[in-house]
Amino acid sequence: MVILMDVVYRHKCAACFQQFKRKEHLVVHMKISHHSVHQPKCGVCHKYCKSFESLREHISGPLAKAHCSSVFAQKGCHVCLNVFESPVSLGEHKGLCLLTIPTPLGTTNIPYTEYEALEDESYVGKCPEAVAIDCQMVGGGSDGSLDLLARVCLVDEDEKMIFHTYVKPQISVTNYRYELTGLTEEHLRDAMPLREVREKISRILFNGESIGKARLDGGKAKLLVGHNLDSKLDCLLMSYPEQLLRDTAIYPPLMKTNFASHSLKYLTKTYLGYDIRLGTYDTFQDCVSVMRLYKRMCAQQHQEGKIGASFSHDTKQNHTFADQTSQDLENMSPDELFQISEPNYKCWCLDSRPRDLLDIGAYELNGILKNHNVC
Ligand SMILES: [Zn+2]
Ligand SMILES: [Zn+2]
Ligand SMILES: [Zn+2]
Ligand SMILES: [Zn+2]
User: For the C2H2-type domain, which residue ranges apply (predicted)?
Assistant: First the structure.
């Protein structure tokens, strides 16, 4: 009977530890799970999870693994979910991990800011720079429910505001949504026309790069960071190459376990440790917060080349599931299967590596790059 149990449960996924009665079921699991070394990992048992939320459940939820949760309770950080050597090193870490809320920009004076960035001619294979965007809307239409762009803010990676303006609404405003926006008619009276706003933002983002090159491999164009970027680009009536977008609403590690989006307020509270949007929404606070979330994800240190596929040259060339016959796959060990497993999203930690070291073509093959028209 004991032997039978051993036989029955011997096919264990090397990444998430799920067990299967038949090897072919493990093979199917590996094909559809897209496990990789870029997934959030338990610092105690080294299980890989599909999102930080599933890792949080594993490590501190009501059904948490007993050993992992007791170690985490003593030496784990509730914000980044990393586990430290000792409670002392955890204490030191928390001072850096828990951030304080950025000073609000407010609406009392009416600032227009534009930072004239110099184009970087020396760009060759450097890491791409990121710019975060936030937009504020007021209401149009008979019931005030139509979103009209009223304010835009851009910050750079150092949290410096590089562009801010109020935007002249294209149709009349029927609800300024004052309690949320703090905006009145006065703010928008002499505001910048949408077309001019769009041109200025495009100039900052493309950074002197041609549209063709930006769409191909980015070139010196900037990464655009934001929460719900599609809706922000829609309200600006502009588009930007898909592979240069970094959207915290649809980045798998930051999504709910059912892959629905979290709000920016939730993500900021959970992953940065402070509350935004307690009264009016402050566009600068939102913008800085989304940049901080992006940078925190970029700073993840994921090992590559040992286990789990990566997008780097050496692991990419030879093996994928498609290259193997089903018999070959069934003969592979769980570790070997993990080695050829490919992520179905591009981990943001790869943004902190020079672009020319990455196999950008791999994303195209995987259908992750979608060509979007650039206006
Ligand atoms: Zn698994
Ligand atoms: Zn990664
Ligand atoms: Zn664990
Ligand atoms: Zn932490």
Answer: 11-40
Q: How many CB atoms lie within 10 A of CB 112?
A: 11
Straight-line distance from the first to the last Cα atom of the chain, in angstroms, rounded to the nearest whole number: 68
10-residue averages of pLDDT along the chain (375 residues): 56 94 92 93 95 94 89 94 94 90 77 58 63 95 92 93 91 91 87 94 92 88 96 94 96 94 96 87 93 95 58 52 84 89 91 61 36 31
- Ligand 2 ion: Cβ-proximal residues, 5 Å cutoff: 38, 302, 347, 349
Ligand 4 centroid vs 100 CA: distance in angstroms?
14
CA 147 to chain centre: 25
User: For residue 146, which of 228, 232, 230, 235 has the smallest C-alpha distance?
Assistant: 235
pTM: 0.86
Which protein residues have a CB closer than 5 Å to ligand 1 (ion)?
13, 15-16, 18, 33
Partnered with residue 134 across adjacent β-strands are 153
Structure tokens belonging to residue 122: 């020396």
Supply the DSSP symbol for 219: T
Question: Identity (one letter) of the amino acid at 341?
Answer: S
Apex 177 CA angle, 132 and 175, nearest 5: 120
- Ligand number, closest to the Cα atom of 299: 2
- CA–centroid distance, 353 to ligand 3, in Å, is 29
Strand 113-114 to 223-226 pairing = unpaired
Helices (H) and strands (E) in the chain, counts: 16, 9
Radius of gyration of the chain (CA): 23
- Asked if 305 and 314 count as a contact pair (C-beta separation under 8 A), the reply is yes
Distance between Cα 41 and ligand 3 center (Å): 8
| Residue 257: φ, ψ to 5° | -60, -25
Residue 366 has which token pair? 């995987």
